[in-house]
Amino acid sequence: MNPIATVFRRELRSYFSTPVAYVFIVIFLLLSGALTFYMGGLFERGQADLQAFFSFHPVLYLFLVPAVAMRLWAEERKSGTIELLLTLPITMWQAVLAKFLAAWAFIGIALALTFPVWITVNYLGDPDNGVIVASYLGSLLMAGGFLAIGSCLSAATRNQVVAFILTVVVCFLFMVAGYPLVLDAVGAVLPQGAVDAVSGLSFLTHFSAISKGVIDLRDLIYFVLTIGFWLYANAVVIDLKKAD
Amino acid sequence: MAIQRRTLTGSTLVILGVLFVAVVLLSNVLLRGARVDLTQNNLYTLSDGTRNVLTKLDEPIHLYLYYSDKATQNLPMLRTYYQRVRELLEEMAARADGKLQLTVIDPLPFSEDEDTAASYGLQAVPISQAGEKAYFGLAGTNSTDGVAIIPFFNPDKETFLEYDVAKLIHDLTTTKKPAVGFISSLSMAAGFNPETRQMKEPWAAYQELSQLFDVRQLNAAALKSIDKDINVVVLVHPKDLPEDALYALDQFVLRGGHLMVFVDPHAEQDESGADPQNPQSAMLADKSSDLGTLFKAWGVEYAPDKVLLDRTHALQVSFAPNTPPTRHPAMLGFTKQNLSPDDVITANLDTVNISTAGYFELSKDATAKLVPIIQSSNQSMSTPVDQIKFMADPSALMSNFKPTGSLFVVAGRLEGTFKTAFPDRKEEGHLAQSKDSNAILLFADTDVLSDRLWAQVNNFFGQKMVNAFANNGDLFINAVDNLSGDSDLISIRGRATSRRPFTKVEEIKRSADDRFRSKEQELQQELSETERKLTQLQTAKGQDQAMVLSSEQKIELDKFLKRKVEVRKELREVRRKLDEDIEKLGTRLKVFNILLIPIVLTIGALAFAAWRRKRPQVA
User: Fold this and answer.
1) Which of A116, A127, A129 sits opposite B596 (nearest CB)?
2) Which of A13, A241, B49, B269 could form a disulfide with B491 if both were Cys (CB 3.0 to 4.6 A apart)?
């Protein structure tokens, strides 16, 4: 059997064997629902679209995804099971990928459970469902990006809280890259080319591009590359730490 | 060894990071156009209309996109939109067989480029509190000095981007704009307002018309004939046209000219009777228009003293500041179901708002055909125009509502071969009847053209922007366009209105309205009856000259007063209930969305845990 699939299944099952998974999903659903209806005013806006819903996803992910990601490797390291995992007949990148995919699938399940809001707008009016499909995809990709960062940073420390805080900070920077807050700081020390480079890395711009209903190859490449890069870094970090 | 390995992987990481950024940036530049458009109307794919406009280019067109790259560094939203605009233009250029040249220019402050931009009529728009300004506009030129511009690309207008650009290109290709004769008794064009001593802005619909067409104002009082090169005549609110003008129009139609008529039983923009000394005179003035002689000859029946009411499409209107909005059955928001899906003029429109409109019918001896473009719902009736003029409260119209069950034609195409309305005239070249069949567009409302029903004209950083909330302008331009014969633009226009209202809520509003209206009316009657009795009693008291009430009267009075308070309370209750259904729906949906799944999950998880605990452990 494919070792990735085996580890993936073991990981995903382990999520649901503890109450933590349920608590996470319930918190995610409560928060996203409350934000959508109370802060986003979905019903009061009177427009059959899910803008109010998706606009809160970056902020939600900023705190919830690091919470999922923090235990990915930090826990394994702390409890020492990392040694066990790495002695399995499985290569490093397979282990990294499998664990990442399991966590991503878990977030995907949480995201899928927001389906009532989709039903709601279809009941209330006649939304552009193509845009909604694209937005869900964009949201899932963005979650993947956050998660890959979290996974890498989780491997860098054995303390889950440190992993959580580090991830929040880095994700926040990636989110607001392209906004004056970050650009001014970069522009002060680096040339214009670097400023443009940084602004092209923002999660938000790529996410909002997809959630307009257009799946642009460049946005896909951006997310795939982001995930790929951080996962590779993840493997490198584990390799480095193994020597400790 | 370990140290060496660490530097190796460490530096790989750095190299990889740089590579990652480089690939993202490269793909941003290189991989354009590869995308899947999932939007329902394919908003982000070039439409056939645009492609036709592009393939029909026969002379080279130059587009200059002015964008202040440096000044907008800290505005990622605008930068994203700039990318979208640039790519759209590049895609258009790629499809135009080299006939469309695109140049992107960054007009730095105090540069020659900036002067050129200004000479085209583009304006820098302030983008920050510090007073920084940026250009983000388009100028196009053709081989014959023709210039057309989009002064500023407003991100809010993204859905109309393709149309705006196609329109600009189209404007540049048509060396001569089609001539449109314009006769209106309403002051729709720009002009001087003697009352305020200021320049008056033109109506947005008129402004749009004059951008696309060579609009020629025709003087109705002196009109003898219509120039041969005028193909379309728009006639708005004709009042007491002299016979010569009617004859000119009659002959214009018979020789194959395209006529568009807007009549109205009650034109709110009609300023006749306006007299600062006597506000009453404006109210009493006749604000209707008719084309009696010609209508009769064409076989059209139209009553200038009847107004159409439609319960289903009544708009919410606020009459005074501080009063709750009420639904007005003469002010109508027509939706797709009222607009003909088969007519190229209305096929792509979503909403058209009209106010105090009339309606058309065919007379019994008519030979022409009346094909509806805009029709009321079957919950409609007509009412004398005086009802509207002198009634401040639309709820009375609602409560006396008796739908006839038939559909009224608010706008339509009159198709057929027409006969002259002036058989006795024998001028040279007189036509007694049209040779080929022709079509006349009829609209029974003039308010449909006024800004307040469809457009918000506001200043966006000093630029005049028209933000449409209904398709009235599109309807007007589509109609003129259609008559003047360019259908490519029509297919682009109007496809992009992104309003998607909650139809369910509107349905509830309507049914709640109906349900509570009768109750309210009942209570209102009881209240006025009570008040009437009360007044009677008090007058009786006055007649008796008695300073004190008899105990009987006192009891009666108390009873009445008490009842009055009660009835008022009930009425308030009824008013409150109008909104309650919607609020209830909102609450139900909030519970459904926020709590349902978490509760189901929690129960499921607890049950699962309990089941696991019960299950005998495997040793």
Assistant:
1) A116
2) B49
**DSSP-assigned letters across all residues of A29-82:** HHHHHHIIIIIS-HHHH-BSSSHHHHTTHHHHHHHHHHHHHTHHHHHHHHHTHH
**DSSP letter at B74?**
T
- Across A177-191, b (16+ Cβ under 10 Å) vs e yields bbbeebbeebbeeee
Which of chain B's residues have a Cβ under 8 Å away from the Cβ of A48? 500-503
pTM to 2 decimals?
0.63
Whole-angstrom Cα distance, residue A58 to residue A63? 9
Q: Which residues contact B26 (CB under 8 A, 6 or more apart)?
A: none
User: CA-CA distance, B362 to B344, in Å (whole number)?
Assistant: 23
Residues of A within 8 A of B20 (CB-CB) are 225-226, 229
Owner of token pair 């209570």: B523
Q: Does A26 touch chain B (CB under 8 A)?
A: yes
Nearest CA in chain B to A193: B25
**d(C-alpha B371, C-alpha A26), whole Å:** 57
d(CA B326, CA B183): 35
Full pLDDT tens readout for chain A, 244 residues: 588 888 899 888 888 888 888 889 999 999 999 999 998 888 887 778 888 899 899 999 999 999 999 888 888 888 877 777 777 777 888 889 999 999 999 999 999 999 999 999 999 988 889 889 999 999 999 999 999 999 999 998 888 899 999 999 999 988 888 676 777 777 778 776 677 677 778 888 888 888 888 888 888 999 999 999 999 999 888 888 776 5
Rounded to 5°, the CA angle B396-B401-B405 comes to 160
Q: Are B47 and A241 in contact (CB under 8 A)?
A: no
Of B12, B84, B16, nearest to B45 by C-alpha is B84
Among the partner residues B16, B500, B594, nearest to A125 by beta-carbon distance: B500
- Would you tell me which residues 53-112 of chain A have a C-beta closer than 8 angstroms to some C-beta of chain B? none
